Amino acid sequence: MSLQPVIVTWMDAWGEDVQRETENLEHHPVETVSVGFLVREDEVGASIAMDTYTDTLSEVRNTAFIPRGMIRKITYLHQPRQEPQAYDDKE
CB-based burial of residue 44 (10 Å sphere; 0-12 exposed, 13-18 middle, 19+ buried)? Predict the structure, then answer.
């Protein structure tokens, strides 16, 4: 399984835990941008994950589900075809 990195632009509900006058209450969704690996996309919505593992792509963590009606756009990011390079923190 190959997980595609994506940017999802979507409209999110929000709330505040402060006292407000009813005339000043904001009444609209907020545009949100989420970045992750696309785990599943269908007519119900999209699930993305922030993390996956190099030894098994069948497991993910830090997931989010976004309902289809809230999604404005999904941008698929290009993955360069190259071998991963080792990181050496001693340099």
Answer: exposed
pTM for this structure?
0.78
CATH number for 10: 2.30.30
Question: Percent of the chain beyond pLDDT 90?
Answer: 57
45 backbone φψ class: left, alpha, beta (φ>0; ψ -120 to 50) = left
Residue 77: how many other CB atoms lie within 10 Å: 11
CA-based R_g, the chain, Å: 18
**C-alpha–C-alpha distance, residues 49 and 56, integer Å:** 14
